[in-house]
Amino acid sequence: MAVKTVDVHTAKQWLDKGEAVIVDVRELDQHAAQSIVGAMHLPSGQLSAATLPDSGSKKIVLHCNRGGRAGRTCNQLIAEDADLEVYNLEGGITAWAEAGLPVQGSGKSVEPDKFCKIK
């Protein structure tokens, strides 16, 4: 089964209408540097059909930086559960930001350890 894709404008419409959940599959430092407003963060290495958020009847849109990692993660999820309705965001957060859609973050990469250190 081929991975479904969605363009940034359609994904934004789905998000605004409450029809989709956007999941950032990048690493923590990438998510901290820049993220789509309203997106959940679940790194691809921790994501499986069993760990997907309960989206109810909403579509699940995965994104990474440009679309490669999210596409591979979509393939993995579909292999685990062919009934999942998952989409790869075309062009990832790069296309989202270039389209002028809302992003947030520090604007610079940070070390994941800065968030995880126990003192």
Main attributes of the structure:
7 strands; single chain; alpha/beta; 119 residues; globular; Oxidized Rhodanese, domain 1; two-stranded antiparallel ribbon; five-stranded parallel beta sheet
Number of helices, counting only DSSP H or I runs of 4 residues or more: 5
Strand order of the largest sheet: 1-6-5-2-4
By oligomeric state, this entry counts as single chain
Shape: globular
List the helices and strands and how they pair.
Layout: E1 4-6, H1 8-16, E2 20-24, H2 28-33, E3 35-36, E4 40-41, E5 59-63, H3 68-80, E6 86-89, H4 92-98, E7 103-104, H5 113-116
Parallel strand pairs: 1-6, 2-4, 2-5, 5-6
Antiparallel strand pairs: 3-7
Can you characterise this structure?
By secondary structure, the chain is of the alpha/beta class. The chain has a single domain, classed as Rhodanese-like domain (Oxidized Rhodanese, domain 1, 3-Layer(aba) Sandwich), CATH 3.40.250.10. It contains 5 helices and 7 strands. The strands form 2 sheets. Strands 1-6-5-2-4 form a 5-stranded parallel sheet, sandwiched between helices. It has a two-stranded antiparallel ribbon with strand order 3-7. β5, α3 and β6 (86-89) form a beta-alpha-beta unit.
Please outline what is shown here.
This protein has 119 residues and is of the alpha/beta class. Helix content is 33%, strand content 19%.
